[in-house]
Specification:
alpha+beta; five-stranded antiparallel sheet; ATP-binding; single chain; 572 residues; 20% strand; transmembrane helix; histidine kinase; Sig_transdc_His_kinase_DctB; 4 domains; six-stranded antiparallel sheet; kinase
Length: 572
């Protein structure tokens, strides 16, 4: 019984580890899922695929290097329909992908046939393993090429290794390609099938690693989910689960089972010894101390029950604390995911917003050079001043995006100007509004309104509401969104009035529910309004919706005003 209880305890720990590790793997992949498709919408990429030339190759190489640097992807590259790499972010390195043909890789063939592909393998050029995400790029006459992003998954291995966790990820064939235990990497999880061996060799999935010459970790996986294994003479209990996305991957984790066995033996010995002692004491004092023994036994039963109940309560309190912490971390991750999703929706407009001043800056500097050559000092100074203004404009845009995309730390609330937060949000979404030809007007009737909140979190609420208003207004062909800040008693009200189609009555009660969205698949996570409502509730705020005058929707954010410091009377 003690051994079974210990095994059940280990199984619970393994389930918790698998759950956390699964979330970590899925989050790492989701960070880059959008990137290949975004690359296929860039005019420079489309131009290179339509008409390759040395000048266009150099331009796209620089663009891909910039994308890889900002997104923190390992390599970003572009392949033509024959499988030949035309441009890559590592074009200037000895390990450059440019000129190599990857037409034999499944991520290329899947993208050509299905539109998208994903694949984990050791790079045939660099020898560095990674997860490849691909997306087909189509033109008017058919396929133009494939955009590929290589993601480095080794940070997960470092986290597992530093935490001392025996965790790994195996592909659909059963080869462990990711693990915090070095001895597990590129080792079969179980005995491989012949068809899987042939496919791995054909795809050159693990070039340079003798995956077929290594002993499998286990002979087979138990149908119960738990598997006993022995490595280096140490018994271990293992558990695995199949991931849904990426499809076919198996997450595998193990814990030493020797302590459970030793604990069971110790419990059995102690129980036997205590039984013997109790029998001897009972025989010795049965006649003389029968009543006393009965009282002591009753006291012992009572104390044992109190101790067991106390231990159970302590475990319940600890489980509740752990669950609350997981919920808080999950909420923070969802908030950050919603912010990244908002940035993804604005990506094209952001590129346009930065490229315009860059082009203007090039022309301004060229003019400054001509004026300097003509010794026109006044015109030269004016051109330089105009160029600096363009640089400042780009710096403001990039600073706003960097601040918004970062994770908001759990800082204490502090009084901030609500009008300033609205203005910061308008600065971030302005490029999206320009792209969709929607004008924004801000009427600040309460410039002194202050609220005790976290500035980055409340700014996310305003950005979510502004993006929804822009999408609704643009869909109706209108061009005006009005933002109004005013006071109502001890609360500040921020109204976002759009000229969209409004909210149908049948879904009015559902729009703030998690993952509910009216947008097409892939255009939204359905988390914006749900997260906005959760953030406002943390500050005793509310989010409500009503019909705007003249049609459309009016979203109203209500926040309690921060207390103003008392004014001191001047001394006489």
């Amino acid at each position: 019984m003690a051994h079974k209880a210990g095994t059940d305890r280990l199984a619970g720990q393994l389930r918790d580890r698998l759950t956390l590790s699964q979330r970590a793997v899925e989050s790492e992949i989701e960070r880059f899922a959008y990137l290949p498709q975004v690359l296929g919408e860039d005019a420079r990429v489309l131009g290179l695929l339509a008409d390759p030339s040395d000048m266009r190759v150099q331009e796209v190489n620089a663009y891909l290097a910039n994308v890889a640097r900002h997104s923190q992807a390992d390599v970003v590259y572009l392949i033509d329909p024959t499988g030949l790499t035309l441009a890559a972010s590592n074009w200037n390195l000895p390990s450059s992908f440019v000129g190599h043909n990857y037409g034999f890789r499944p991520y290329f063939t899947d993208a050509v046939e299905l539109g998208r592909g994903d694949y984990y393998a050791v790079g045939v050029t660099t020898g560095v393993p990674g997860y490849f995400l691909s997306s087909r790029i189509d033109g008017p006459d058919g396929i133009l090429g494939v955009a590929v992003v290589k993601v480095d998954m080794s940070p997960l291995e470092r986290v597992w290794a530093e935490a001392g966790e025996m965790t790994g990820v195996a592909d659909g064939a059963g080869i462990v390609f990711l693990s915090g235990v070095p001895n597990w990497r590129y080792r079969p999880l179980f005995t491989l099938k012949d068809v899987d061996r042939d496919r791995i060799e054909t795809e050159r999935r693990y070039d340079g690693n003798d995956v077929f010459g290594r002993v499998p970790l286990v002979s087979a996986l138990d149908a119960s989910g738990l598997t006993h294994m022995t490595e280096d003479g140490s018994p271990r209990l293992a558990m695995s689960t199949v991931l849904v996305d990426p499809k076919g991957w198996r997450l595998f984790s193990a814990l030493p089972s020797a302590p459970v066995r030793d604990e069971a033996r110790l419990v059995a010995g102690v129980v036997g010894l205590l039984t013997l002692v109790c029998l001897l004491l009972g025989l010795y004092s049965y006649q003389r101390r029968q009543l006393t023994r009965w009282k002591l036994e009753q006291n012992g039963v009572l104390e044992r029950r109190v101790s067991e109940r106390t231990s159970a309560l302590a475990r319940e309190v600890e489980e509740r604390k752990r669950t609350e912490e997981e919920l808080r971390q999950t909420q923070d991750s969802l908030i950050h995911a919603a912010k990244l999703a908002a940035l993804g929706r604005m990506s094209a407009a952001i590129v346009h917003e930065v490229s315009q001043p860059l082009s203007a800056l090039d022309n301004t500097l060229a003019a400054a050079g001509l004026h300097a050559g003509n010794h026109a000092h006044d015109k030269t100074a004016a051109s330089i001043t105009a160029g600096r203004d363009l640089l400042k404009r780009m710096q403001r845009t990039i600073k706003s995006l960097r601040t918004f995309s970062s994770r908001a730390k759990a800082l204490p609330n502090e009084p901030i100007a609500i009008g300033q937060s609205v203005a910061e949000a308008l600065e971030i979404v302005m490029s999206q509004a320009r792209e969709k030809r929607v004008s924004l007007s801000f009427d600040n009737e309460a410039p002194s309104a202050m609220a005790s909140v976290n500035a980055v979190r409340i700014e996310q609420v305003f950005i979510n509401l502004l993006l929804n208003a822009i999408d609704a207004t643009a869909s109706m062909g209108n061009s005006q969104i009005t933002i109004l800040l005013r006071k109502a008693g001890r609360r500040a009200l921020v109204e976002f009035r759009d000229a969209g189609p409004g909210i149908p009555e049948e879904i009015a009660d559902q729009i703030t529910e998690p993952f509910f969205t009216t947008k097409a698949t892939g255009e939204g996570l359905g988390l914006g309004l749900s997260i906005s409502r959760a953030i406002l509730e943390d500050y005793d705020g509310t989010l409500s919706f009503s019909s705007a005058p003249g049609g459309g929707t009016c979203a109203i954010v209500s926040l309690p005003l921060a207390r103003q410091p008392a004014q001191r009377e001047p001394a006489e």
